[in-house]
Every structure is written in C-alpha cells, then in structure tokens.
Amino acid sequence: MDHSTLEIFCAVAEELSITRAAQRLGRVQSNVTTRVQQLEEELGVTLFVRENKRMQLSPQGEKFLGYAKGMLALAEEARQILRPGQPEGLLRIGAMESTVASRLPEPLARYHQMWPGVQLRLSTAPSRQLIDALKDRTLDCAFAALPLSTGETPQDLAELGLTGVRVYTEQLVLVLPPDHPTVREASDLRIHSLAAFKQGCTYRSIAEDWLRSQPTDTVIDIQEVGSYHAMLACVASGSCISFIPRSVIELAPETTRLRQKPIGNADTWMIWRNGYETPALSALREALALAHD
User: Which intervals hold domain HTH lysR-type (predicted)?
Assistant: First the structure.
C-alpha cells in the first residue's frame, strides 16, 4: 500500500475507468489494472465491481477511498512542512460558489502569478460540506460562512481541530420578481417558493430563519438549484424568491430589473486545520491580505 498505489486507486475511483485513469496518470492500462488488483489482494477485499459494463466502487472501496485520500493528503502536507522554502506542491481549496464568483478570481490570479509551482485545486460546496471536508482532510482550506445553523461558530472551530480568520462580510439580499409588491416582512410575500442551494448552505439557513421569524403561517416550499444563475432565472420567471449575496448580484446586470431587499450580513471565514501551516497556505493568506489593501 505505497504512495503510488494509493494515487492509482484514487484516480480509478474518481474516473471510474481504467482507461481514463491511465491517461490521467500517464501510465499504461495494464499497469493500472495490475496495481489495483495487487491492492485488492493486499487488503483482502474487492474495491471495484462492474455492473452492465460500468465500473463502480464497492462498499469496501467507498470506505477505503476516504482513507486513501487522507493518507495522500497527510503525505503531501508532511512533504511541504518539511520543506519550508518556496511555496510548491498541491493546495486544495474549497469555497462557496458566491465566494468563487465574486471574491477569489483576483487573489487567485495574483497567487498563481507569484507562485506558479503551486497546483491549485478549487472546488465548490455549501459551508456545511466544506467544514466536513476539512475535518476529513479532503480539503486543505475552505472559505465558508459562519456561524452554521448546525452549531459551528468561530469560537467552536478549535473544538473541531480547525482555525480561521474572517476575510469578507457579505450583505444578503432578498431578491423578488420585478412586479412583486414591496416587502417589509414575510407576510408581504406573494410567492411562497424559495430557490436555494441544498441543505448545508449558511445563506439558505439565514433565509429560512428570517422567514420563520416573521409573523406568518405560510409554508415556504424549497426549490433546490445548483447555481446562482438558476436562482436568478427562477426569480425572473416569477415562480420563486431567493436570498443572494450583494457581491453576486453586482456581477449580474440583469438583476437590475429585480426587486431587492437587504436582510442582513454574513461573515465569510478562511478556515484550515490546526497545525496545517505550509508555505503554500501562508502565501494564500498573504495574497488575500494584499487584496484587502
């Protein structure tokens, strides 16, 4: 179960194809197949199954994938920490979609220009999932909104083995169709469908709390969507309301036709694991500080 074998297993697990994994790794297919078979023999389990000519992870493979990624991440972290010179290696960044769209392009472009030896791997998810990924070591740092409705506050991070700094404050805006009457409280709403991300999104939790706190018995239906563009389209169609950060609204000129009502602020934190102090992470924090100057 060496480092190279774990990398091969993770590539096959992500691609669900020996052919694509071999191309990605620059290896011949027979070598990838042999290494996976050797790993299965060593572990004494079947990691992959084929169903209708499609490769899938077995239940044992699903469990092992988390451990394999964790071991590779720990090895990469150790390698970087033991070489405290110029930033290099892999830095896995997770962020809310709003942060990726409105806040990170400039600092990440500056970062890449200054430190081309660092491979940045960026992924998006709601805040709850980002915190979980940090704890599972599948991310090195994350940009998440705190506090979460499930309890994580800046003060609670230490108990989770995490630490962080506040980097942005977002104004959250209730967005309505252009012909909707003025809304002062939830009882003024004429539309009872909320376009939002799936559970785990802090902004969705803030929206639900605001709707519940107002004097109305109306039940709000949640329409889960995968992007802010989808949210805006739902609102523009007249079928939904939504709660969107002001910084995202400013990126979309078509939102000038929509009615808007500010409802409060939410802080975005850059969060990482306690003790994770690689040159690549330190350089990212410096790039963010320059963006604020």
Answer: 1-58
Q: Which amino acid is at 246?
A: R
pLDDT at res. 76: 82
The residue assigned the tokens 């694509």 is: 20
User: How crowded is the C-beta side of 291, counted as CA atoms within 13 Å?
Assistant: 18
Burial of 143 (0-12, 13-18, 19+ CB in 10 A): buried
Q: Does the pLDDT of residue 293 top 90, yes or no?
A: no
User: Residue 118 — φ and ψ, nearest 5°?
Assistant: -95, 130
Residue from 125, 133, 13 nearest 65 by CA: 13
56-65 own/partner pairs: CB under 8 Å, 24+ apart? 56/16, 57/13, 57/16, 61/13, 64/9, 65/9, 65/10, 65/13
pTM flag (> 0.85):
no
Q: Strands (DSSP E) along 43-189, which ranges?
A: 48-51, 54-57, 89-95, 118-124, 141-146, 162-176
Indicate the pLDDT class of residue 292, thresholds 50, 70 and 90: low
pLDDT reading at 150 higher than 60: no
Cα separations in angstroms, 40 against 15, 25, 141, 185: 18, 20, 32, 59
Encoding tokens for residue 53? Answer: 């000519």
Q: Which amino acid is at 247?
A: S
Domains of the chain: 3-67 (1.10.10.10), 97-163+270-292 (3.40.190.10), 170-268 (3.40.190.10)
Average confidence (pLDDT) over 51-64: 87
Quote the CA–CA distance of 97 and 229 in Å, as a whole number: 11
Section 146-163 average pLDDT: 75
> What's residue 234's pLDDT?
93
